[in-house]
Amino acid sequence: MKPLPRTLLFLALLSGGILTGRALSSSAESGGSEVSSSETSTHRRPSRDTQREAPRTFATLTARVKEETTRTSTLRTELARVSTDTLKSILLEQYAILAEMTEGGKARQPHQDLYTAAMEELWDRQKLSAFEWASTLEAPKERAMMQKSLLYRALAEDLDGALPWMEKYHTENGKAQTYGEFKSIAIKGAVDRGADAVIRAFEAFPERGAYGALGNLEFPEDFDFAKLHKAVVGKMGMNNVFAQWTLRDRDAAWAAMEEGIRTFKGNPPDEIGEGMMKAVMVKEGEPAGVTWMLGKLAALPTPDPMRQDQILSSILTHSDLSTEGVGMVSAKLTPEGRISHARNSLISRSAQSGTGHFLATLPRNELIR
């Protein structure tokens, strides 16, 4: 079977549901808008130096907001023409509007788009220097929001430069609400820079959180999966890592998986069921993929029947197998494993079509049990 192009394989995995979690956007708005409707702030007037330019800028952009015609590309083009002081005034004004709004949806989105575009423009111009301005703002909630929005960009692009400002933010505002989010942003932003950068980002956040940060990402061609696995196995969700590793080097990925099974590290049932198994089927086809996986599991030096049942059950649950594939996998379950999987499938709210295929493979006496 001729291998598919890697990009198509990645898209196939994504559409098949392997890659969990959400991709990192440029400003980390995937978890909601940057400005919460529950936050309030005192409106700040533009400085004297920007009062001449501001009316034209505010009038143009406000008109677009009211007409709901704002688009990020259009806004960035217009914002690129304004001075940095005016840009900061736009940010503060839009924050004040958003903080006072109680409605969402269409009424809120244009203001959020303008705020986001202005923050992107400010970050592109000033990078870490923008924190100096944000730290001078007197209103605590206003200052916190500007710092938080800047941290979304800084943690992804310049971790070492961002960390002191993150510590300052946490000192002033606490970290219970943002620690995991900031950790996820830093890890996702480091992926394109390689395994060492991801490990550095992971180690910069020693507390628990962001377990699924490596989901829904595509890794660079030269990414060192083995180095990443050795550093974070058991500490982060690796389903997507194993899926993409398997697409590139199936044998190396399995060697790491076999070590994890032998040493009880990581989460082999999910890493195989939601990662490796789907990747092998995308690359090799279902019959060859299932045959290969069952052969590898059977060849483990000291197979643990209970652990084997957990892995096989995960494959049945997550791999969207055909009737034939379900039959091949379920035949390897122990009798106790078949009963356990049937029971769990029937009481699960997320039971899939494969549940019926699986039940059809059970002997009648086990169905009665």
- Major sheet details: none
* Number of DSSP E strands: 0
Number of helices: 20
Distance between the termini: 42 Å
Secondary-structure element series: HHHHHHHHHHHHHHHHHHHH
Low-confidence parts, pLDDT < 50 over ≥5 residues?
Answer: 1-5, 7-12, 18-27, 37-56
**DSSP strand content:** under 5%
Radius of gyration: 25 Å
Mean pLDDT: 83
Could you walk me through the main structural features you see in this protein, from its secondary elements to its overall organization?
- Mean pLDDT is 83; it is low at 1-5, 7-12, 18-27 and 37-56.
- The protein has helices at 6-16, 54-67, 72-79, 84-100, 109-126, 130-134, 140-157, 159-173, 179-190, 195-203, 225-232, 239-248, 250-263, 268-284, 286-298, 305-318, 323-330, 335-347, 354-361, 364-368.
- The two termini are 42 Å apart.
- It is an all-alpha fold.
- It has 20 helices and no strands.
- The longest helix is centred in the first third of the chain and has 18 residues, at 109-126.
- Helix 13 runs antiparallel to helix 14.
In short:
This protein has 369 residues and is an all-alpha fold. It contains 20 helices and no strands.
What's the helix and strand layout?
Layout: H1 6-16, H2 54-67, H3 72-79, H4 84-100, H5 109-126, H6 130-134, H7 140-157, H8 159-173, H9 179-190, H10 195-203, H11 225-232, H12 239-248, H13 250-263, H14 268-284, H15 286-298, H16 305-318, H17 323-330, H18 335-347, H19 354-361, H20 364-368
Helix pairs in contact: 1-12, 1-14, 3-5, 4-5, 7-8, 7-9, 9-10, 10-11, 12-13, 12-14, 13-14, 14-15, 14-16, 15-17, 16-18, 17-19
